[in-house]
Amino acid sequence: MTELPAPGRDTTVPRPVIDPGLPARDRTRIDRILTGYPHLFAHPADAEPPRYTSGVAVGSLPGVVATAGAGGVAALLPGLVDQAGPSGPTGPTGLMGSVGEAVLRAVEWAGGAGPFVLAGAGAYVAGILAVRYGRSRAANRTLAQARAHCVHPAALTPEAAGLLARAQRAIATVTASRTHRSDLAGLRPYDDLHLPAEEWEIARTLQAHSRLSAGPADPGPVPAEEQRALDEVLAGTERRVRALESYAHRVAATDRATITAEPPDGEPSPRREQLLHLLARTAADDLAAAETLALADRLPPPDPAGP
Q: Disordered: where is this region (predicted)?
């Protein structure tokens, strides 16, 4: 099969797929999470998903610790001064006595305020930890919901990722075509509904296949009957991808025929225009074939122990 025409963007690397059945608001929220925190989705199929940890107010912690330390020192100062005793001439009329008395008053004031500073700093740190814990729990609940409605290529095996890239390239070829944009065959509403659903179904199947292909926790060879079932699932998904590619090739051929049929100085003849519409409508045959294949692929794999 010849290479599909480039649809105008890089389709060699598969993109994350979001459940098209979600409301637009939820799809937008998942897309924002994917954009802002891609590492929370990009994990292998056999790895534990990473968790989100809130970093709120972490930058102010050094200052809080320093304040708490100062409060602790201030709380201990009166005791240290009492233990040290007078260190110089003190008297109500001497300069040193006045200075010493002022210092002692400052120490007494700091000693009284120190416990409050220390307690306030401790409460601030406790508040930070509580906020971080609450935000982390809420974010991880949202993240779990997002993961249930999103397939990231990093969670796929290389073979599965390649199939997803092929499907996305075929879909991009269709949606970027002139036949689709002008709705030459009246299929655009169907394409807009069917193609995202087909991409999602392919991505979900490939994700489940990749997870099962990772094998059980205990290392060892996969039983032959399980491997045959996995191979059949992958083969069925590839048939669906090939059906999409066939449809994309037919749409591209319609585009080329449309450009060739257009005279430089006017509209094509009625006969030529009818022929182009017929050619565009026959592209739906490939969509019908894909739906038939999808029905067949919903059947359970044949029993390896059977005849």
A: 1-24
- Chain centroid, CA 97 distance in Å: 70
Q: Are residues 207 and 292 in the same domain?
A: yes
| Selection from 68, 71, 291, 65 nearest residue 190 by Cα | 291
- Same domain assignment for residues 94 and 178: no
Among 230-234, 256-260, 268-272, the range scoring the smallest mean pLDDT is: 268-272
Model's pTM, two decimal places? Answer: 0.61
Q: How far apart are CA 259 and CA 281, in angstroms?
A: 17
Of 23, 222, 56, 50, nearest to 134 by C-alpha is 56
State how many domains the chain has.
2
| Dist CA 146 CA 7 (whole Å) | 28
**191-207 burial by CB neighbour count: b if 16+ within 10 A, else e?**
beeebbebbbbbbebbb
Q: According to the model, what pLDDT value does residue 118 have?
A: 53
Residue with the bigger pLDDT between 143 and 158: it is 158
Within-domain flag for 285: yes
Which residue among 146, 164, 195 closes a domain? 146
CA distance 187 to 131: 51
Per-position DSSP letters for 8-72, written without gaps between them:
SS--SS---EE-TTS-HHHHHHHHHHHHH-GGGT---TTSPPP-----TTGGGHHHHHHHHHHHH
Structural domain of 101: 58-146
